[in-house]
Structures are given as C-alpha cells and as structure tokens.
C-alpha cells in the first residue's frame, strides 16, 4: 500500500508538469489572439488565472451558430473559449453540439472528453476518449489524455501504463509521446519492480 501512495504522489507531481501542456495543446487549432492580447503559451503557468471570456466574441459566435445550424466550426470555437476560461460545463454544451454535427472529428471528441474529466466525470471522459480512438486509433492527444484520465480519474495505473506504452510505440518523437514516456518513467521509478500492479 505504501508503494501505491508513493506512486500516486509521484504521478501527481508528473500530472502537474504535464497538465499545463495538455490544456495548451489538447484542443485543435485556435484563431490568432486579438491585437494586444498575450499569445497563449504551450504550458500554463502554475498560478495562471483562466482566460476571460470575451462576451462580444461569444455573442458573435452564437449568432453565427444560429445562422449556420449545420456548421460545427462556430460551436467548436465557443467550446474552446469556454474551455480556456475553465468553464467546462459550457464547453461541454458547445463541444457536444459540434460533435453532433461532425461525429467523426477526433479533436472535438477529445476536447469533450477532457471537459468531462475536468467536471469530475471520468467514466464519461473515458467513453468519449474511446470514441475518439474509434475514429482515429492513432490520435496521439487522445491516447495521452486517456492515460491521464485512467491514472488520475480512475486510479488505474495499469490501464494508464498500457495506453502510454501504446502512444510511445506509435509516436515516440511527438510531444505527446515524450510526455507519455516521462509519465511511464515516473511510474516505473516509483515501482522498482516495473509496471505497477493495481
């Protein structure tokens, strides 16, 4: 039991290091930042405050979504705005609408899964991330996030290890593969015998 506590402690530290990276990269491409606004970094500062929601932008995108009922793009942009502001329930609403229009988009599906995770719904997050993998079994961001949800949302270190090992095999040089390798190294160092048994 003590080894599990150590593993979870180390995993928590690792999670802190990669959580900012995930927030910055888990979503699809973004629009350019407005003039004068700081550019989003690929890693959130530890004490960074969530982005403010630009209500004028929300109103414009909402109008666009109403005018274009079959276009997922404004809904994705609204989801991204709310996700960046850490207003995950609202992000879920918009990502769900976008995914209903474009069910085979693994980026939107993964963003929805991550939003479920941040609203303390790990089972829904896993189901959504598995849908993303049904669409694209090699989607690196999905694999990284699925490992994180398994490790931290379900305390399933064995499941997380399996997913991260798969990611390292598929995309070892990608940023996601490198993050997975660091996660695996942390777990293995916490368990001198190798892969943790859960």
Protein described:
Residues 1-11 and 19-46 have low confidence and may be disordered. This protein starts with a helix and ends in an 8-residue tail after the last helix. The protein is mainly α and 198 residues long. It has a single domain, classed as Tetratricopeptide repeat domain (Serine Threonine Protein Phosphatase 5, Tetratricopeptide repeat, Alpha Horseshoe), CATH 1.25.40.10. The protein has helices spanning 2-25, 55-67, 73-84, 88-101, 106-118, 122-135, 140-153, 157-170, 175-190. The protein is elongated and about 55 Å long. The longest helix has 24 residues, at 2-25. The protein is built from 9 helices and no strands.
Structural class: mainly alpha
Count of helical stretches: 9
In the CATH hierarchy, what is the architecture at level 2?
Alpha Horseshoe
Q: Give the overall form.
A: elongated
What is the CATH homology-level superfamily? Tetratricopeptide repeat domain
Keywords:
mainly alpha, 198 residues, Serine Threonine Protein Phosphatase 5, Tetratricopeptide repeat
Reconstruct the topology from this structure.
Layout: H1 2-25, H2 55-67, H3 73-84, H4 88-101, H5 106-118, H6 122-135, H7 140-153, H8 157-170, H9 175-190
Summed up:
The chain is an all-alpha fold.
């Amino acid at each position: 039991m003590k080894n599990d506590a150590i593993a979870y402690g180390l995993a928590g530290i690792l999670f802190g290091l990669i959580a900012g990276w995930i927030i910055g990269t888990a979503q699809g491409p973004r629009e350019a930042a407005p003039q004068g606004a700081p550019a989003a970094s690929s890693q959130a500062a530890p004490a960074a405050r969530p982005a403010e929601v630009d209500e004028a932008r929300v109103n414009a995108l909402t109008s666009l979504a109403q005018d274009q009922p079959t276009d997922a793009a404004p809904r994705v942009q609204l989801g991204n705005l709310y996700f960046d502001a850490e207003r995950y329930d609202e992000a879920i609403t918009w990502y769900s609408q976008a995914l209903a229009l474009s069910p085979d988009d693994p980026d939107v599906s993964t963003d929805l899964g991550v939003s479920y995770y941040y609203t303390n719904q790990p089972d829904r997050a896993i189901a959504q991330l598995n849908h993303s993998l049904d669409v694209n079994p090699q989607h690196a961001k999905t694999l990284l996030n699925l490992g994180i949800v398994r490790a931290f949302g379900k305390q399933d270190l064995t499941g997380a290890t399996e997913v991260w090992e798969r990611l390292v095999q598929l995309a070892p040089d990608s940023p996601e593969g490198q993050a997975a390798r660091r996660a695996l190294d942390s777990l293995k160092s916490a368990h001198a015998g190798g892969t943790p048994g859960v």
